Amino acid sequence: xxxxxxxxxxxxxxxxxxxxxxxxxxxxxxxxxxxxxxxxxxxxxxxxxxxxxxxxxxxxxxxxxxxxxxxxxxxxxxxxxxxxxxxxxxxxxxxxxxxxxxxxxxxxxxxxxxxxxxxxxxxxxxxxxxxxxxxxxxxxxxxxxxxxxxxxxxxxxxxxxxxxxxxxxxxxxxxxxxxxxxxxxxxxxxxxxxxxxxxxxxxxxxxxxxxxxxxxxxxxxxxxxxxxxxxxxxxxxxxxxxxxxxxxxxxxxxxxxxxxxxxxxxxxxxxxxxxxxxxxxxxxxxxxxxxxxxxxxxxxxxxxxxxxxxxxxxxxxxxxxxxxxxxxx
Amino acid sequence: xxxxxxxxxxxxxxxxxxxxxxxxxxxxxxxxxxxxxxxxxxxxxxxxxxxxxxxxxxxxxxxxxxxxxxxxxxxxxxxxxxxxxxxxxxxxxxxxxxxxxxxxxxxxxxxxxxxxxxxxxxxxxxxxxxxxxxxxxxxxxxxxxxxxxxxxxxxxxxxxxxxxxxxxxxxxxxxxxxxxxxxxxxxxxxxxxxxxxxxxxxxxxxxxxxxxxxxxxxxxxxxxxxxxxxxxxxxxxxxxxxxxxxxxxxxxxxxxxxxxxxxxxxxxxxxxxxxxxxxxxxxxxxxxxxxxxxxxxxxxxxxxxxxxxxxxxxxxxxxxxxxxxxxxx
DNA sequence: TTACTTCCTGGAACCGGTTCCGGAACTAGT
DNA sequence: ACTAGTTCCGGAACCGGTTCCAGGAAGTAA
Lengths: 329, 329
Known about the structure:
The structure is a homodimer of 329-residue chains. Chain A is of the alpha/beta class. Chain A is built from 13 helices and twelve strands. In chain A, the strands form two sheets. The first copy, chain A, has a six-stranded parallel β-sheet, with helices on both faces. In chain A, strands 7-6-8-9-10-12 form a six-stranded mixed β-sheet, sandwiched between helices. In chain A, strand 9, helix 12 (277-280) and strand 10 form a beta-alpha-beta unit. In chain A, helix 5 packs across helix 13 (292-307), helix 8 packs parallel to helix 9 and helix 10 packs parallel to helix 11. The first copy, chain A, is elongated, with a radius of gyration of 26 Å. Chains A and B meet through helix 4, helix 5, strand 2, helix 6 and helix 11 of A and helix 4, helix 5, strand 2, helix 6 and helix 11 of B. Strand 2 of chain A pairs antiparallel with strand 2 of chain B. Chain A binds a DNA duplex (30 and 30 nucleotides) through residues 4-6, 14-21, 23-24, 27-30, 33, 48-49, 51-58.
């Protein structure tokens, strides 16, 4: 416990330099010497101090990650990011953003203090400007975000447009020609894409979607429930619902249940994301799966390439969505 | 960008020592000197290097956290842990456990390398022995776990027994005298506590619960759904369900819906945990709330006390559960 | 004036690695 | 036998802070 490289060197009868060479596999060492050093290391249970390593090398081998406060929907991403980084010998440091301005300030300090070599950011609501500044100050950053179409910023996203189309085609195959759409926030790129893909696919099948059937939402269960409830009260005729995320879809289910509609007989429901919740509703939710784990892994690898300054570091990765059919359609 | 303490010292016309003293507020400095140093710091945008600090101090001011692979139910805990640690000037490093033995080995290396000053562990399934060994090797550790009753190990848990009793009293108030119980895994302490509290509270009201009405489950949606379905088929008469976690409760809801039972009129359902899912079911789930955020905060603070070797560091914290009434009762 | 504090400050060692550079020993070439 | 080139190794500087210890200046009491 607590042996240093000097202890190892002394025990093996060599210099610190040589021990370091053995540890890092930098050749130029006699086979015999290597053996001696290895043995000394084993006998002393020597493990190089992480702190000293980081200090000497000038790089922390740590990645920071910003996850929006509320949306721990993304835990799948975090999980796969941890796994991927760990496999590459990097650590993941979680960063808080829940304290607004104060959080940004402390983030800035950590960057200046070189607490991590790169930053992974999920959907930086208000902080995008700040993040951009950091990026331009040459901190490697990868965004996991599909709300912006921001060339020049490395990012990982999904095929939202195609996802919307997948939902549309699935509903059309089931003979549903009068869908009600509950969107996400209008400002988000993903909302526009999901809606666009959906509408276009319907158009391609010869069905024009009346704007009255498009309800602008905010990704929340409750507002979606209210919207669907109102649509039912207003006598809007629809045979299906396409909600832009799963909680919204769950809200639609609640309103439909309350109104005595049978699902999927009377109304089919399709969500988006495929979070855990989706399998637990009644009936289980058909949804467009965003492959969170793949996205996390892709983002981690992409960021590492940038941290290591690989010349062939890709600009971005798009991970395809897929349709998951369950009981609600 | 990249100024060091030496640069600051040179600019202020003092020694590194003095700058260090100013930075750390160790008195013994002339007011005038302090001002000069402060100004030099400001002019150079100097921020002490995190790596160098950790190295010089010999402590990383980082806490490691182990979260079981599947159960990202705990994201609320992680969130509050991050916030709490950050407020105290500590960082949170996520650790992977998804690679079994290999993960443990790499955890051991990180501990030996002093990558963090303390460890926060949520329900270490198979790794408890290993964790114990680390603890006995004097690594500060706090467990967030209520499945073991392990004196001598600092931990944070909830009042499972009282939670079970709260569920029982709530159902009794609603006139439900024939509850069906879907438990968690039999081996878990929390299962025994939740069940014990529930049964005792019913007994106190003069209602003996027939063992036939206690179904051993495993916290999963699907198995719970099956169990309830079978109970219905077998003609077991019950007017309520107490599931030991929320996904199980959702499974019960699904089976009841499928059988055409109306909730809560025919059958009332109570869950446990109050995860996000609970508000999104139909009807929204009445449940026993485990205050995840409070638990995370308590665990973080408790661990910091141990890391700092506060003599009055508490042995453990028990955070009370509370009843959250929603539509399912 | 001397002696003894008190207040401030700086030099230098230290934390535990990495890395540059120089040199010894050995091999090979002529 | 002398030179040139390899191979292997160690000394020492360095990364950027903290901390121990010594000592000068100023203040106070004898």
